[in-house]
Amino acid sequence: MERRKFLKQSSLASSLFFVPNFVKAIESVAKNSLGFKKLVIVQLAGGNDGLNTIIPFTNDIYYKNRPQLSIQKNNILKATDELGFNENLAPLKNLFDKGYVSIINNVGYPNPNRSHFRSTDIWHTASETNEYLNTGWIGRYIDLYGKMPYSGIELDDSLSLIMKGNNINGIATKDPAVLFRNNLTPYFKKVLNYQSDAHLSEHNLGYLYKTMIEANSSAKYIYETSKTFSSNVEYPNNPFGKQLKTTAEFINSNLQSKVYYVSMGGFDTHAGQTNRQNKLLQTYSESMEIFVKDLEKNDTFKDTLILTFSEFGRRVKQNAAGGTDHGAANNIFLIAKNLKSAGFYNEVPNLVELDGNGDINHTIDFRSIYATILDKWLEVNDKSILNKSFSQLDLIG
Amino acid sequence: MKTRQLQHLFLRAGFGLGFNSLTNLKSKSKSEIVSNLFSDIHKTRPLEIDLSEFKDYFVENFKTGKLKSDKKTMMALQKMSREKIQELNIAWINRLNHPQSVLSEKMTLFWANVFVCRDNSVFDIQNYNNTLRKYALGDFRQFVKAIAKEASMSKYLNNKQNIKESPNENFARELMELFTLGIGNYTEQDIKESARAFTGWFNKINGEFILKTKRHDYGEKTFMGKTGNFDGDAIIDIILEQKQCARFICTKVYSYFVNPAINKSRVEELISIFYKNYDIKELMEYIFNANWFYNDENIGVKIKSPIELLVGIHQIVPVEFQKQKQLLYLQKLMGQILLNPPNVAGWKGDKNWIDSNTLMFRLKLPSILLSNAVINLEEKGEFEDSFETYYKTQRKRDSYIKITKSWEDFDKQYSKLTPYEFKELLLVSEIDKDTDEFLSNLKIKNNQEFCVQLMSIPEYQLC
Question: Quick check: B381 contacting A, CB < 8 Å?
Fold first, then answer.
């Protein structure tokens, strides 16, 4: 890497006590230049069954394919003449009724892959189905615009592909105090205290030192900023609720992070789906409603967009174990205060013309949604991040 | 041979060198040492774990007719197989710590990230792994042909579904894109034609390859300018005729064993050796004997993979895990679980191992393993997990990795070394000037403590 570029990318947060001088001199470069907008991405990991989430309750094909699994009309929270919410999504329906939710049906990509790993990679990297990228779309955003690891935070202890960039990666933490403790052991502190700008290598060794310095300053910045705000709203007592609570604390403490990524597990319902999925949807929507309330209370909801997706939907036809197998296109949710497209964005799923596996065909490429979010919400050049131009949707701003 | 060059050779051909071995080898010549390295490769045995319990389950249930192919039974079997694969993962790491031939094992590890494959069947993936081991220093042509016939590969890249009536192109595409030629060195038409040549390639229940003649397309194919009634083996032969194939493999070998920054003229040199016979052993002998391999620019410039880091620490201070699953946890947090590659393109390596989280964990690893530092990070759940399992922590916060450390072994070799000698032994990369000053001002109580301190600076991440 060129030394100039290298130095530029080392721009760090303020309030550091051990950083080299060159870092202090340029610390203000990226600060505040990206506006206030936040993006929260939630993955329902495992493949959520979209058809039992938003139910096409007038469609006979739905009922025929799911003799045991289908949800009857009278157990549905009707939203339109054709579609209704799973009743465990009542809290989400509340948000929907306030005009805070936009549901986009039939989202997917050409030649869908049905492996959790691969399809998650595709959603994370925004790649073609036959293309293997080693950076995520948020990682590339951080590379080009965020410039600091804490620009993107994953609410976990290790970093997913979505957050990995070429030169800069996001940072993962579900507990800033733990992150801080791990990074600032007395020994590491001593090593870094000796660091000056004069000697940093431009090769791999320099990259390691640069990453170490950035990790330490990010950990310190996240910890010290987020501890100034403690949420007094009560979240459901489960790990997903905890992740959202921490996210709210990050946002409400005015941390300069732009993107948050949360993965909620458990959606791979091959067997005994009904009870499992009901409980998951309840957990998801209860936590989400509280999260929105918490943000509203602190006047940060207007600057926050929440995207919920799953790596794939599930097969239309139920299987023999009272579950469903991996499918293709699925619905996604957008939650925000001022959506242009509140309600249902597009047509109901077409259950007549399925693909060769009996799965729903996509009509909207997920990368069109990414392009819209990047351009209209984060206000950056979507093509530079997605490496290609995708038609945008009329969703926001 | 000079100490630093010896260390370099063994870091690349293996996982480092202890002080005693180093002392023994020092007086020998380079050619002698390199030929020693190759002399024990025939001693390598297949890696096999005990699968009898699993086999019994099948046999027993077949006899009593209880084995059903219903969803529940299949899921139970898959779960059992997944657990056995974890056992195989641990057995593999133990093998790396105690190899019959360290070079064979290093090559196997390398090929596992070229011919990338994953499978939920422990039988098939164990066979697959041993095929990698068998050909790791053998004939590349036979190697590719063997890989193409493996049950795990056939499943992983859908060649199982590749039949005359409806060809599946996945294997043909990845064979060229990721295993032999690289993107842009073939046409879409080449993929279509070669996919036909691999139709009808199946495997029996025991994994053995079988050609289903009725499913195979015996018709004429035109591939890379040649026309004939090619089968899969013939396609592989035509691929190997392309110099690009030798170039593709030599580039991978160079960046893994020599330097992640490619030197084109060196790679051309390797191609001229490799293209002649596609003899992997010949190629590796050439590299390790080449004077330029030992140039300063190639020493200590590669970022260790998590496995190289783990096994490397073990070379200096032998550690035994009391809870072997904790070994999986460490791999997971560092982003490399053996037998579980992220996708068919494999791990990208070098810089891609490093982000804020993995680096801090890697820097902390020596104190976790050797000084009872607490672990307070949780691993991610699996896609297949229920909500509860997905978030379940195997360890309580602030717990320890339970291991037995052989400090006695360490002391025998290292207690008498001066700090300078010890530093020279553990670190091969250039040392950051500021850190070097820090180290020289450090009060050193004993070499045990100094060992952990040296392993906890960024320089130790390089090999």
Answer: yes
